[in-house]
């Protein structure tokens, strides 16, 4: 252990910018970014599935509000959504005295709410598109088997829609990772926040931003390969037989 | 009535900045996109590799980070050169990046990569038989491009272009973070000063929706135009 | 609109390559707005404040025309090096770290820094122990940021802001327990404004010099020694003929 830390100090010796302190900030940033993106994606996904099903409802008063929600969240910049939620919650009367405040006080949760609502809107539309694209034949076959609407949704439509949505959803995950860079505008010390700190303190834009760009690039590739792998497994039946 | 507390004119100005920024970056992105698409279809390995590195790197790094890198770092890079010119040759030239130029360059550069992919896919979707038919008529390469490949490519590219444009439009909001007074920045500034975030941020959100809806309408018309002769879409 | 378009197109012609004479007759000054009362905008958008008035006065005496260019604090030194402007006059404290990159004028104002907290705050002092687990607000890249990061980074949460206004808003929202600011700025934005109940916690802070340097200076690029000298002479002039005191009086009143 001592050896490692000695080696580490040697490595950093004479380097004014990448000190143990700044690397600590980058690490903290990596953790924050990962948490933020992961949580918002998971919650967003859970929200999106029922919304996507209801988005195709026959009743306009179910369909239209959901359409309105996705239209607004997909049509406006995430930065504005973040500002509105971060600054907006403060002006709800009595919020500072409510039990919610310890949560909303931290910049993390308003950011999480904004990111979640945003990704849920995109994901809803992705799934909605995939559900709509279900082959007529599959539905007819299910009907012929006497499946109820619910059973058909669960057994036939959703599983096949998920698979079809996979490539688009992979893009959405990468998009969220990149979009999360704006978290630093509401004081969150995410990866970009760490880079901005290092930049402001040492006036070293190249070191600060190239380093963080490299980290994002690695994360992007990791996500990309994960989804390639998933597609290979789940979409195996769509590949031409060799 | 909406009380903008004296910030009205600046908000309008900010909206002007947003629209100009979006249109100019779109123009740059389209040009870069066409170049990238050609490079990717090129048989020259080096050109192909450069285009691939460009699209991969750009699409792997957040817009905001690229923007900061270019805005803060690009200028320093330019300065090193201009300082050198001054020190060795007494040539005192400098190029200054303002936030607007940095915004247009970065956004154009980023979306050039996305446009490149869209164009490439669209060019490849054009039926080879059509090109051969054009050649058989004795058309030269340029004429084939203008009369056959380009219009047909556009038909395939339009949905992707429309999508890229919508994303680009929203990306312009990020320039507010590097200090350009677009409508988002003015609204954020006003909300802080007056402590009324909704009064300023909601109208700006509505403005984005409006621009998006108008663009949708324009793209639908374009789509119709390029689909003439194909019946339906 | 047309004018706006052509102006920005001009700006876009990135290569707005201008040959800049060595002897300035036009000086562009970078400033981070808002930082009341040093520099801020009225709702109509007019730039005003102590730095602005003093700066305009100095420019007049130096015999140059001045243009103020807004730049957020965390990019203000790079912007100078980048020649986005030729000087910085934006409540910038002179310290050794900055001296390595820029050339400072003589100090023109020496404010202390201070801690500000809501009047209801139970904090009585600002030792590491008493701020443990608290959320501290600072402006990113300021000397206050450096000081707090080094002294309290391990015990407290530090929120960094691009502008002082952001920080004040979050303090009012009760997102911050305490902020660390230039004293005059905190006094003007927190203590003096109506309806806002804040207090100064502990003493005003001017030590150690390693962080707090010696007052505000105008920053120039290292090579522009001649320009800095001209501003120093003008500064001495306004301090002697009472103009400086007039401007000081206008923004800070009697106190200090």
UniProtKB/TrEMBL annotation, chain A:
UniProt cross-references to Gene3D superfamilies, sorted A to Z: MetI-like
Domain ABC transmembrane type-1 residues, every copy: 30-227
Localization per record: Cell inner membrane; Cell membrane
Transmembrane segments annotated in the record for this chain: 33-54, 66-87, 107-127, 173-197, 209-230
Any coiled-coil regions, as ranges: none
SUPFAM superfamilies on file: MetI-like
Chief site of localization: membrane
Record-linked InterPro entries: AA_ABC_transptr_permease_3TM, ArtM/GltK/GlnP/TcyL/YhdX-like, MetI-like, MetI-like_sf
Topological relation to the membrane, as annotated: Multi-pass membrane protein
Protein's UniProt keywords contain Transmembrane helix: yes
GO cellular component terms, A-Z: ATP-binding cassette (ABC) transporter complex
Keywords: Amino-acid transport, Cell inner membrane, Cell membrane, Membrane, Transmembrane, Transmembrane helix, Transport
Any one of the GO BP annotations: amino acid transport
Domain of life: Bacteria
GO molecular function, one term: transmembrane transporter activity
Protein's UniProt keywords contain Transport: yes
NCBIfam families, per database record: HEQRo_perm_3TM (TIGR01726)
Recorded family membership: Belongs to the binding-protein-dependent transport system permease family. HisMQ subfamily.
Protein name: Arginine ABC transporter permease protein ArtM
Lineage of the species this protein comes from: Bacteria, Pseudomonadati, Pseudomonadota, Gammaproteobacteria, Oceanospirillales
Automatic annotation (TrEMBL), chain B:
One GO molecular-function entry: transmembrane transporter activity
Domain ABC transmembrane type-1: 15-219
Segments passing through the bilayer: 17-37, 49-73, 93-114, 156-178, 198-219
GO cellular component: ATP-binding cassette (ABC) transporter complex
Keywords associated with the record: Amino-acid transport, Cell inner membrane, Cell membrane, Membrane, Transmembrane, Transmembrane helix, Transport
Topology versus the membrane: Multi-pass membrane protein
Entries under CDD domains matching the protein: TM_PBP2
Subcellular location: Cell inner membrane; Cell membrane
Protein family membership: Belongs to the binding-protein-dependent transport system permease family. HisMQ subfamily.
Protein name as annotated: ABC transporter permease subunit
Naturally occurring in which organism (per UniProt): Vreelandella rituensis
TrEMBL record, chain C:
Localization annotation: Cell envelope
Signal peptide interval: 1-21
GO cellular component terms listed in the entry, alphabetical order: cell envelope; membrane
Keywords, comma-separated and alphabetical: Signal
InterPro entries: Iontro_rcpt_C (IPR001320), SBP_3_CS (IPR018313), Solute-binding_3/MltF_N (IPR001638)
GO molecular function: ligand-gated monoatomic ion channel activity
Pfam families: SBP_bac_3
Gene3D superfamilies to which the protein is assigned, alphabetical: Periplasmic binding protein-like II (3.40.190.10)
Name the record gives this protein: ABC transporter substrate-binding protein
Organism name: Vreelandella rituensis
Lineage of origin: Bacteria, Pseudomonadati, Pseudomonadota, Gammaproteobacteria, Oceanospirillales
């Amino acid at each position: 252990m001592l050896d490692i830390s000695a080696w580490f100090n040697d490595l950093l010796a004479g380097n004014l910018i990448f000190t143990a302190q700044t690397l600590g900030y980058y690490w903290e940033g990596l953790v924050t970014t990962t948490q933020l993106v992961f949580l918002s994606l998971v919650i967003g996904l859970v929200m999106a599935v029922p919304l996507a099903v209801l988005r195709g409802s026959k009743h306009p008063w179910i369909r239209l509000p959901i359409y309105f929600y996705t239209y607004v969240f997909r049509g406006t910049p995430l930065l504005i959504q973040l500002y509105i939620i971060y600054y907006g919650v403060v002006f709800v009367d009595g919020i500072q005295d409510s039990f919610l405040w310890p949560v909303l006080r931290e910049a993390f949760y308003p950011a999480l709410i904004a990111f979640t609502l945003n990704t849920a809107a995109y994901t809803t539309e992705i799934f909605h598109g995939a559900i709509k694209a279900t082959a007529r034949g599959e539905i007819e076959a299910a009907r012929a088997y006497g499946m109820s609407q619910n059973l058909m949704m669960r057994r036939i439509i959703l599983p096949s829609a998920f698979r079809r949505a996979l490539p688009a959803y992979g893009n959405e995950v990468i998009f969220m990772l990149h979009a999360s860079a704006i978290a630093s505008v509401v004081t969150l010390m995410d990866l970009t926040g760490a880079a901005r700190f290092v930049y402001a303190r040492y006036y070293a834009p190249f070191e600060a931003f190239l380093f963080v760009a490299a980290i994002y690039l690695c994360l992007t590739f990791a996500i990309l390969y994960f989804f390639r792998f998933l597609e290979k497994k789940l979409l195996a039946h769509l590949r031409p037989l060799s | 009535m909406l009380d903008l507390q004296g910030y009205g004119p600046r908000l309008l100005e900010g909206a002007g900045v947003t629209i100009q920024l979006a249109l100019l970056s779109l123009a740059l992105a389209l040009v870069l996109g066409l170049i990238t698409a050609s490079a990717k279809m090129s048989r020259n390995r080096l050109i192909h590799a450069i285009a691939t590195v460009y699209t991969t790197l750009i699409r792997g790094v957040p817009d905001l980070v690229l923007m900061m890198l270019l805005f803060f770092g690009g200028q320093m890079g330019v300065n090193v050169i201009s300082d050198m010119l001054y020190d060795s040759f007494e040539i005192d030239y400098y190029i200054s990046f303002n936030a607007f130029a940095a915004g247009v360059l970065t956004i154009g550069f980023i979306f050039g990569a996305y446009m490149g992919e869209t164009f490439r896919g669209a060019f490849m979707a054009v039926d080879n038989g059509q090109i051969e038919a054009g050649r058989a008529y004795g058309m030269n390469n340029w004429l084939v491009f203008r009369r056959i490949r380009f219009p047909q490519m556009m038909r395939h590219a339009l949905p992707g272009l429309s999508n890229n444009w919508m994303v680009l439009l929203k990306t312009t909001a990020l320039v507010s973070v590097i200090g350009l007074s677009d409508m988002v920045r003015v609204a954020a500034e006003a909300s802080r000063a007056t402590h009324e975030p909704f009064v300023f941020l909601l109208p700006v959100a509505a403005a984005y929706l409006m621009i998006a809806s108008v663009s949708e309408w324009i793209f639908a018309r374009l789509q119709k135009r390029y689909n003439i002769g194909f019946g339906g879409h | 609109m047309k004018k706006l378009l052509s102006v920005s197109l001009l700006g876009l012609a990135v290569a707005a390559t201008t040959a800049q004479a060595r002897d300035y007759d036009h000086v562009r000054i970078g400033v981070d707005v808002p930082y009341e009362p040093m520099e801020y905008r009225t709702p109509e958008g007019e730039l005003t404040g102590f730095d602005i008035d003093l700066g305009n006065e100095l420019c007049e005496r130096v015999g140059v025309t001045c243009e103020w260019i807004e730049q957020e604090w965390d990019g203000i030194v790079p912007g100078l090096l980048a020649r986005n402007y030729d000087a910085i006059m934006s409540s910038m404290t002179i310290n050794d770290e900055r001296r390595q990159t820029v050339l400072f004028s003589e100090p023109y104002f020496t404010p202390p820094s201070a801690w500000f907290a809501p009047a209801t705050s139970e904090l009585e002092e600002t030792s590491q122990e008493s701020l443990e687990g608290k959320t501290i607000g600072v402006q990113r890249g300021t000397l206050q940021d450096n000081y707090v990061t080094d002294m309290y980074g391990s015990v407290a949460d530090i929120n960094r802001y691009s502008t002082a206004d952001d920080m004040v808003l979050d303090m009012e929202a009760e997102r911050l327990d305490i902020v660390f600011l230039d004293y005059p700025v905190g006094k003007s934005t927190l203590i003096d404004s109506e309806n806002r109940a804040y207090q100064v916690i502990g003493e005003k802070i001017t030590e150690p010099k390693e962080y707090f340097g010696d007052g505000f200076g105008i920053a120039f690029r290292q090579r522009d020694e001649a320009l800095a000298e001209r501003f120093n002479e003008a500064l001495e002039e306004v301090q002697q003929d009472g103009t400086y005191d007039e401007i000081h009086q206008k923004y800070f009143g009697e106190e200090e």
